Amino acid sequence: MDISSYTRKEVGALGEDMACEYLRRHGFTICDRNFVKKTGELDIIAQEGNTLHFVEVKTVLADDFPLAENKGEDAYDPSLNLHEAKVRKVARTGEWYVLEKGWAGEWQVDGCLVWLRRRDGIARVNYLPQIV
């Protein structure tokens, strides 16, 4: 399935779907998605044990997956969009979520980087726990 014609919104939604699937396969339960407050949006809220994880997903379309040892100029790193101001917004919105849901356990902010290959839609996911 060629996804090169997808809009940014469609790419982002597909990336979030792939991140959810990755988290499920690694023992997380998906509690909520796209929770919006005036402070921002939480892409994915997942639970593992007694901890809530507010997962910020960054997705990029790529012709090929970047190699760890070869980060050339054309290999865009989606983690560049996980800057301090964005992470702070996620944490503030997470505080709203915890209060609204009456969550009494631990919580943390995580990141999830998703590369989607244009020609076939195959994903590479890199989960980044506790980015705060």
UniProtKB/TrEMBL annotation:
Pfam families per record: UPF0102
Cross-referenced InterPro entries: Restrct_endonuc-II-like, tRNA_endonuc-like_dom_sf, UPF0102_YraN-like
Family that this chain belongs to: Belongs to the UPF0102 family.
PANTHER family assigned: UPF0102 PROTEIN YRAN (PTHR34039:SF1)
Species this chain originates from: Candidatus Kaiserbacteria bacterium RIFCSPHIGHO2_02_FULL_54_22
Record GO terms (molecular function): nucleic acid binding
Phylogenetic placement of the source organism: Bacteria, Candidatus Kaiseribacteriota
Protein name listed in UniProt: UPF0102 protein A3C19_02535
